[in-house]
Amino acid sequence: MLELRNYIDGKWVDAEGNRRTEDRNPATGEVIASVPVSSKKDVAHAIDVAHRTFQQWRKVPAPKRAEILFRVGTLLQERKEDLARKMTREMGKVLLEARGDVQEGIDMAFYMAGEGRRAFGYTTPAELPNKFAMALRDPIGVAGIITPWNFPMAIPTWKTFPAIVLGNTVVFKPASDTPLLALELVKIFEEAGLPPGVVNLVFGSGSEAGEVLLEDPRVSLISFTGSNEVGRHVASRAGEGLKRISLELGGKNAISVMDDADLDLAIDGIVWSAFGTTGQRCTACSRLIAHEAIYDELRDRLAARVGKLRLGDGLLETTDVGPVINAGAAKRIDEYVGIGRAEGATLVVGGGIATDGDLAKGSFYRPTLFADVRPDMRIAKEEIFGPVLSMIKVRDFDEAIAVNNSVAYGLSSAIFTQDVNRVFRAMRDLESGLLYVNAGTIGAEIHLPFGGTKGTGNGHREAGTAALDFFTEWKAVYVDYSGTLQRAQIDS
Ligand code: NAP
Ligand code: MG
After folding, report:
1. Which atom of ligand 1 is nearest to the CA of 204?
2. For position 444, what pLDDT does the model report?
3. C-alpha of residue 148 to centroid of ligand 1, in Å
4. Count of CB atoms within 10 A of residue 245's CB?
5. Complete DSSP assignment for 162-221
6. What are the catalytic residues?
7. Would you say domain 2-249+457-477 falls under CATH 3.40.605.10?
8. Fewer beta carbons within 10 angstroms: which end of the chain, N or C?
9. Which atom of ligand 1 is nearest to the CA of 207?
């Protein structure tokens, strides 16, 4: 069996006392790897190394740092198929989507490597004669990076690539459910020639290993993607130490379908957004807000499509929808389906953990469609993070906007309509960080800002140039070449 190790100061090392746990394939139950369980001491050691290495790394010219990232991008390209297959085995998403997950990492590598020759600051006129003023971006220090399992390659690349190209060092604590993909990424850093100590990898639980990153004063920033529950804890614990904190949390994303929508297109977008990655994307569509004029037709056509989705191992060509991440997740999703029924929603299709044939070996949940859902039901408000879609009927466009905005989250929204006036009103009024017109709620591109409003986060964005703002801080520099004391606001 594969034995994973932590990567600290350029060496592959066991956790203290060689404590270990297992990584399993959620489609088959098979054990894929044995994984270290790091102690608080292991993580503190990694932080120590990253803290020391920062003093050298920040002085390496950014274009040189970027050259390593270009090599990382090339290696990811060469290994795309192998990494995608490993990802499907480790976390279940179908191969097509696993390839997309790796592709995001490739795109991010080349995009962020380009920042090695940009990372623009600015110069600006000074108010006094013979004086020069400019604003520079400084690296911050040690970045504590904590990631979820649902994008095991893409999300770690969104965080580590801007962090290192901008001169920070990293301690990376990946999700316990996807250690193998984290290790594969770090192996690529090593092969690309990243100096020891710049990226350090520690496996282990959130509550033990992750916690150290929140508490240690040598960690200057925390970039976290995960659940709201843990996100709140991260914010308060790391906030006490006045760290810079970026939180990308849950969603309750909706697609609104108006009476003038192209229904064929809308149905394709809904199925892809609600059941892709088995509904386990932060941007997954979990509410369908439908105009009363097309509601019944949309429900019936969707029911037929959803009923035909084939569950199975994501490595098989015949599979449309893979497993959920683990047995606990399947149980939690099933509880929500029970809550929906008890609240009076109509179960149109699906519902239940699937156990027929080989499916019994893994954790599979039947793609599920609820109709007659009211916005105040729990299944319409809380993140389920599984293949469950709730249909809500509305009278008109204004009600659709109000229902879309009625949840605590604000990650992604979508609207299907042919009316340009409605499109622009939706652009103004929908409360979310991502908005899709005549497309589903998923499909972000890496050079645009990514993140959500309201309960989805704390106002930061990832990717695009937004990442530069998170992983650097501004230094305003004044050079007075007058040879006299000039006092701002007084002598001008
Ligand atoms: P999670 O349970 O919150 O875990 C996320 C990460 O935090 C994991 O690495 C976890 O470690 C770690 N962690 C747990 N407790 C911790 C603690 N006390 N201190 C420090 N770290 C701790 O989330 P998940 O189940 O992996 O991911 C699903 C969630 O992520 C969903 O809510 C989804 O919406 C959200 N998500 C959001 C975005 C976005 O961009 N907005 C993107 C993807 C996913 P362990 O794995 O060891 O528990
Ligand atoms: Mg696994």
Report:
1. 47
2. 95
3. 4
4. 23
5. HHHHTT-EEEEE--TT-HHHHHHHHHHHHHTTPPTTSEEE--S-IIIIIHHHHH-TTEEE
6. 282
7. yes
8. N
9. 18
Contact partners, residue 202, CB within 8 Å, separation at least 6: 6, 8, 38, 42, 43, 46, 171, 172, 173, 209
Q: 193: how many CB neighbours lie within 10 A of its CB?
A: 10
pLDDT over threshold 90, residue 1: no
Ligand 1 center from residue 176 Cα (angstroms): 10
Ligand 1: residue whose CA is nearest its atom 11: 206
Handedness of CA 220, 223, 226, 227 (dihedral sign): positive
Token pair for 349:
């299709």
**Residues forming a β-bridge with 13:** 6
Q: Euclidean distance between the first and final Cα of the chain, in Å?
A: 72
Phi–psi pair at 356, nearest 5 degrees = -75, 135
Per residue in 175-197, pLDDT (tens digit) is: 999 999 999 999 999 999 999 99
Candidate of 90, 93, 146 to mutate for ligand 1, largest count of ligand atoms within 8 Å of Cβ: 146
Beta bridge partners of 134: 123, 477
Q: In this structure, what are the phi and psi dihedrals at residue 225, rounded to the nearest 5 degrees?
A: -125, 130
Neighbours of ion ligand 2 (CB under 5 A): 23-24, 90, 177
Using alpha carbons, select from 452, 435, 428 the residue that is nearest to residue 460: 452
Tell me the β-bridge partners of 139: 472
Domain residue limits, the chain: 2-249+457-477, 253-437
Segment 358-372 shows an average pLDDT of 98
Average pLDDT over residues 85-111: 98
Sign of CA dihedral 215, 221, 223, 229: positive
Given this chain, do its domains 2-249+457-477 and 253-437 carry the same CATH topology?
Answer: no
Eight-state DSSP code of residue 450: B
Average model confidence (pLDDT) across the chain = 98
| DSSP string covering 178-191 | -HHHHHHHHHHHHH
**Rounded Cα gap, residues 138 and 429, in angstroms:** 36
Q: Is pLDDT above 80 for 162?
A: yes
Minimal CA–CA distance to 429: which of 402, 395, 447? 402
**Would you identify the CATH topology of the domain 253-437?**
Aldehyde Dehydrogenase; Chain A, domain 2 (3.40.309)
User: With 80 as the cut, is the pLDDT of residue 5 above it?
Assistant: yes
